[in-house]
Amino acid sequence: MNPVAARTSCDLVVVGAGPTGLFATYYAGFRGLSVLLLDAQHEPGGQVTALYPTKAIHDVAGFPAVPGADLVRGLVAQAEAHEPRMVFGAQVVDLVRDERSGTLTLSLADGSQVDARAAVLSTGVGGLRPRTLPVGHGWHGRGVAYTVGDPTDHTDEDVVVIGGGDSALDWALQLQPVARSVTVVHRRRAFRAHAASVARAEKCGVRLLTDCELLAIHGDDSVRSVVLRDRDGSEQELPATTVVGALGLVTAPSPFAAWGLELVDRKLVVDQSMATNIPGVFAAGDATSYPGKVPLMAVGFGEAATAVNNAAVHIDPELSLFPGHSTDEEQGTTMASDPTPLAVEA
Fold first, then answer.
1. Cβ(175)–Cβ(246) under 8 Å?
2. 55, CA 20 to 30 Å: which among 44, 232, 293, 318?
3. pTM of this prediction?
């Protein structure tokens, strides 16, 4: 997790340390590639770590339910089995391919550079920040929050969640068993969240207010109450210890177009091998687009394996695309390669 040297090299660089990027890092090690994982955030896990570390994820094969933080820890442990380099707080600002050698050079915001034979871009939906509450200015850290980490931090609190999507209802359901009261406020008539989540919230006692908006936050050193206004203009004041903004995320502009990568609706266009239009550059996960794409974590894991195995063949055409079975690792019979990394002076 040390900073990248002024100039370093590897067989494969993976950009983005969300679930897809972590699994790609494991697979690159399994194939015997030297791999460097880069992420602009300061810890692994991407959106899972940032937004729902305690939320149970139900659509990962083999796990009826796994908390986000546990899944990330498992993916990190899996990736570390092959001793990759993982560098966090490293923002990639440019990617250039040398037409003669085929080498990819990635430039980082701190001025360092990475030379690689191939790259897998697994940046998800890009740099994210929560959409802030219109009346939340000045209250952040004093009762206004934009994520829910440990629900027990809100034991016996009056919590008001602003938003109508899945995150709003998921957080409300996590908080309801420990909070004194939980109210979800949505400015539209119908919730965008999954209908089953809305029904569960109603059943377990979460108060759901629709056609209603947050008008003001009151308090002293911390939040004490909120003022809500419904569609008819009627106002009501509710006790509130914590106000959770769940209005969605704002994405930072992607640099992909400037790098010469083909995009559709701000997503990377890939073929069936997860290759982009730049030779040696592959992509996987939510950053990609192709006909029939299903944006699920489970799909991203498969895309990561596809991207890495095709990248391995790009690096060494003598390799088999099929990697062998992971169950053969302990017997030393995998089909991983031992390519010689690029020699670059530090």
1. no
2. 293
3. 0.75
Annotated binding site: 20, 39, 47, 52, 92, 128, 286, 327
> Residue 126, Cα to own-chain centre: how many angstroms?
8
237 pairs with which residues across the strands?
Answer: 227
Annotated binding site for FAD: 20, 39, 47, 52, 92, 128, 286, 327
Q: Render 140-165 in DSSP notation, one character per residue.
A: BTTTEES----GGGGTT-EEEEE--S
pLDDT for 77 beyond 70: yes
For the 7-127+252-331 domain, the top CATH level (class) is: alpha beta
Region of residue 268 (left: phi > 0; alpha: psi -120 to 50; beta: else):
beta
CATH of domain 130-249: 3.50.50.60
CATH 3.50.50.60 in the chain, residues? 7-127+252-331, 130-249
Spatial neighbors of 199 by CB under 8 A, at least 6 apart, are: none
Burial profile 16-48: b = 16 or more Cβ within 10 angstroms, e = fewer = bbbbbbbbbbbbbbbbbbbbbbbbbbeebbbbb
Question: Residue 1: is its pLDDT beyond 60?
Answer: no
Looking at residue 229, its amino acid is R
Residue 249: per-residue pLDDT: 78
